[in-house]
Amino acid sequence: MSTEEPTDPQPPTGAAEPEPAWRRKQRLAEVFGDVLPDTTSDEREPGETAGGRGDTWLKEQVPPHHGG
Length: 68
What we know:
about 70 residues; elongated; about 25% helix; 2 helices
C-alpha cells in the first residue's frame, strides 16, 4: 500500500485568495469537457445554435447503417 499523499489540483480550503472563475471553468473542462453552452436558446437569435451546429450537422453524423 502506498503512503504517498494524492495530489489535488484544488486550492486548500481557507486559501487566502479564492479560485478565479476562469480557472475553475478550465479545471472542470479538463475533467468533464465543455458540455454546456455559454448562452441559452432564449439568448440567441432564432435558428442560431450554441456551437454553430444545427440539425443538419446532427443528421450528417448518423452512420449509413442506421438508415438516415
